[in-house]
Amino acid sequence: MSADLSKEELEKAQLEIKNSQDDFEDAIEGEDEHDGSFKSHQTSATVTIIMSADLSKEELEKAQLEIKNSQDDFEDAIEGEDEHDGSFPVTPEELTIIRADLASEYPEDYDYLSDAYILSVASKPYSKDPSIRRPLDYSQKKLNDVMQWRAEAGATEFEELVKLVNGPASAPEATENPELFTKAKAMVTSLNYGSTYWHGFTKDGHPVLWLRTNRKPWYPDSDAEVNALILLADAGIRCMPEGVTDFVCIADSASPPPPNPTFMVKLLKALVKGYPDRLNMLISAPISSIVQFVMNLLLPLMPGRLAAKVVLKGIDEGKEKMAELLLNGEADIPTFLGGTANHDEFYPEESYCPNRGEGSLKFDYYGMVERLKKAKEEWEATKN
């Protein structure tokens, strides 16, 4: 993909955004501010501003530097190699040493990293001399960096925040820490859009994260959106079969909202710093000028090996790719991508969702986790 969109492509993207906003032109300004679902009518000039100018040049440069520094931590992963098996053996004693180090530094979260993931990191060739394996202390540092990022992001508390908001707002744990409760409500608001969820596996045992861009808000709370995705990513990782360390993401990109650079850069930073080598493939279909605009923004920031995992397809090509990947082939392709699987049975739009408890949680988070666990068992049964 070229470094810049042509004038014609940019104008086409702007026209697509303007046309998509017409779907929401009757929405009332400020309606239901708590769930963030309103999308009021915007002028063409406003759309242009949204597309082009959320981040300053300095902020983009800073983000690019942070991402590059994180990329350097794992730059010695060789493109195309079998990331599950690695290239060099790691002894059980070395695995025990790494485990003990993580348990000492992060006693409440040390078991988040599976043995398979630790081995996939520790077995890679060393960037300074690819003929040898990474030194043990080098791998320990890289894994500790991931755990440090998780601690700073607050990842370990996010599932507890879901429980908090699923209860009454008058509960002591909510009233005694109103700032935490506000953070939890914002994250759950992002979940409630139903734009992102786990459902099913690939033939190779990768859990599938589905992204429905038409459900994304026009004006996202970037921090809350990223927190919700961290929560979801961790739920999927916990449900990975033994030996599997990465996931597949499939995006319906037919009607995305206007690009929000702040959110996209924060999301990319989280993926690179907190989930290195976790994305196996991202399939986006159909291709549109808006998607091309997004990729034009993100590609210069992406590590090369991550960019290579992004696959843009037309709707027919996308269906062929999904039929190859998904556990049950064509039967697993959802209706919103031209298939027959009805995801709305489990993940309807927010307006059709009941409250799951006494609070504001509408998205079926706990049901999603249980269904993913059951799908994992079904996949494992095919291997026995």
User: Helix amount, in percent?
Assistant: 40-55%
Radius of gyration: 21 Å
How many strands, what sense, and barrel or not for the largest sheet? 5 strands, mixed
Please tell me what the overall shape is.
globular
- What's the helix count? 15
Q: In percent, how much strand structure appears in the residues?
A: 5-15%
Describe, in plain words, how this protein is organized in 3D.
- The longest helix is centred in the middle third of the chain and has 18 residues, at about 135-155.
- The chain starts with 6 loop residues before the first helix and ends with a helix.
- It has helices at about 5-20, 45-50, 55-75, 90-105, 115-120, 135-155, 160-165, 170-175, 180-190, 220-240, 260-275, 290-300, 305, 315-325, 365-380, and strands at about 125, 130-135, 195-200, 205-210, 245-250, 280-285, 310.
- The protein contains 15 helices and 7 strands.
- Residues about 1-5, about 15-55 and about 75-85 have low confidence and may be disordered.
- It is an alpha/beta fold.
- The strands form 2 sheets. It has a 5-stranded mixed sheet with strand order 3-4-5-6-7, sandwiched between helices. Strands 1-2 form a two-stranded antiparallel sheet.
- Helix 4 (about 90-105) packs parallel to helix 6 and helix 10 (about 220-240) runs parallel beside helix 11 (about 260-275).
- About 50% of the residues lie in helices and about 10% in strands.
